[in-house]
Write a structure and sequence with these properties.
Blueprint: H1 7-45, H2 51-54, H3 58-68, H4 70-108, H5 119-144, H6 155-187, H7 192-195, H8 199-248, E1 255-260, E2 272-275, E3 286-296, E4 300-305, E5 315-318, E6 323-327
Antiparallel strand pairs: 1-3, 1-6, 2-3, 3-4, 4-5
Helix pairs in contact: 1-3, 1-8, 4-6, 5-6, 6-8
């Protein structure tokens, strides 16, 4: 039987499905680009190069981001799995405690109040929320004392983690309190008084629910922003570590022999300058050895000396007829 639905509804469904796929992919690509950019900026700043002068493409930054995000990509799923496991155990414990105390209260005394038997759980959750508020306060204090803690190396990681942890504990404790109240409401016996609540109490409950939802949404925004900040800090530190490793292992970079028409007056340690013998048709007169290819941009190469020194500099060489470049084989026989 042919499909009798109008083609317009099918087109709308296809557009909706496509948008649900494209939007997350676009967001993921934007995040990968940003963290790749942060890491690359920190990496090449170590060599005195502004990453924007290299001219990397969007795809280039995205391809560089997985190495930077390796630690967060491993830690976040593990943290989520641990949280879900702990949350399931806590909720089972609370539900069992409420059901058990309610059964005991109804058996011993028909009009017993099960709320009285779960006050210990309520107090523990409330103290947890106060602890989260204290952690969040410490993070906010660190946030506003940034001018005084500018030189602290761990500032960019400790501050967002404290804010995210404090906000997360507050949000989770609030959810547990709501869950506990719902269980108590299900276990409590219904009375005629509860059957007809007045409008004032309903309006007050509705307003409190709206306020709690707004507060929860704000807490989730704070948590997301803090995790984003911490991940950017990790990306920056990762780029710096990659640069330092490369500086310790310049021999892993491609070795370059550079011929130029004019003398470059390079004084970096380890770079050898040789004057080429004059010959007919020879346009290159100087040869430089002891250079390594740091990275190649769109129309230029960035060369560094063979051995790291505090007085080193990065040489920018255009990829045109003004230079001649040779890449040496690795000193390892096949």
């Amino acid at each position: 039987m042919a499909d009798d639905r109008p083609s317009g509804s099918q087109l709308g469904q296809w557009i909706s499905t496509g948008a649900s796929i494209v939007a997350p992919v676009t967001l993921l690509s934007a995040l990968l680009f940003y963290f790749g950019y942060v890491s690359s900026s920190s990496e090449y700043a170590y060599f005195g190069v502004d990453v924007d002068t290299i001219g990397l493409s969007t795809q280039g930054y995205i391809m560089r981001s997985p190495q930077t995000l390796l630690v967060p990509l491993l830690m976040l799923p593990l943290a989520v799995v641990g949280f879900l496991t702990l949350n399931a155990a806590i909720r089972r414990r609370i539900a069992s405690r409420v059901a058990h105390t309610a059964a005991e209260a109804n058996t011993a005394k028909p009009d017993g109040d099960p709320v009285r038997h779960t006050e210990h759980i309520r107090h523990m959750v409330q103290w947890s929320r106060l602890f989260g508020l204290a952690v969040l306060t410490i993070g906010v204090i660190l946030l506003f004392t940034y001018p005084y803690l500018y030189g602290w190396a761990w500032y960019g990681l400790v501050t967002p983690l404290l804010i995210a942890l404090g906000a997360g504990i507050i949000a989770y404790a609030s959810r547990l309190l709501t869950y506990l109240q719902r269980l108590q409401g299900q276990q409590a016996p219904s009375t005629a008084k509860d059957a007809g609540p007045n409008r004032a109490r309903l309006a007050h409950e509705d307003s409190s629910v709206v306020a709690r939802r707004i507060a929860s949404a704000l807490l989730y925004v704070v948590i997301a922003a803090s995790i984003f900040w911490a991940t950017a800090t990790i990306a920056q530190a990762s780029g710096r570590a990659i640069a330092q490793y490369a500086a310790e292992h310049f021999d892993d970079l491609p070795s370059v022999i550079l011929d130029t028409k004019e003398r470059l007056f390079l004084h970096d340690p380890g770079i050898e300058e040789t004057v080429l013998p004059p010959s007919e048709g020879q346009t290159f007169h100087y040869r430089y050895r002891g250079l390594r290819l740091l990275i190649e941009g769109q129309d230029r190469m960035f060369l560094v000396p063979d051995r790291w020194s505090a007085s080193d500099s990065t040489l920018i060489v255009p990829l045109d007829s003004s230079v001649r470049v040779q890449f040496q084989f690795q000193n390892q026989s096949p």
